[in-house]
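Sync notes, pocket subgroup
Present: LS, DG
LS reminded everyone that the earlier model was apo-only. Rerun requested with 5-O-phosphono-beta-D-ribofuranosylamine included. Inputs:
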Amino acid sequence: MYKKAVILVSGTGSNMESIIKACKESVLHLKIERVFSNRSNPPAFEKATKYKIPTEFLSSKLDRLEERLSEYIHKNQIDLIILAGFMRILSPNFTARFKRMIVNIHPALLPAFPGLDAQRRAWDTGVAKTGVTVHFVDEGVDTGEIILQREFIIDRTKSFEFFKNELLKLEHRTYIEALQSLDKK
Ligand code: GRF
């Protein structure tokens, strides 16, 4: 059972916000200690501050970023690192050190469409369905052990923007569900 988490973000932070809300409402029994970013002031920071969660810019340099994060995790007994739109690939050293402690959400049904622009690639390929995946992070890109997947049937009568937005809403629900399932372990 995981207790103390940090969230890593790079951008908007809508997944981060839905996780923070779920914790505040006791839908999730995690304490979010801090929100970190590789960017100096992403829109996500403003959202986190609204919920009185401390924010911290790590570094845009991976080695410094991981060094500071490791230090924080050890000092504060963090047992879960939640990636929510975090756009840096963590080093194999870091992922090995924190095995089964780092989770990520990906907007596709892995192993299909790993990496960037998964929604656009699913859309352009013409597949009938895609989905979202929550997984542990290992040394590969979107290759770690799958925790939970949810499917999404693509409605081709609607626009790409509509599809992307609906898939993001599914991400929010699926991330909470996946974290709840970890909670029970
Ligand atoms: C999400 O689609 C996530 O799957 C991807 O980046 C996006 C982040 O959105 N890795 P947000 O910052 O949570 O709004």
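DG: Residues 11-16, 84-85, 105-107, 168, 171 surround 5-O-phosphono-beta-D-ribofuranosylamine (CB under 6 Å).
LS: The first helix runs from residue 14 to 24.
Action: DG to write up.
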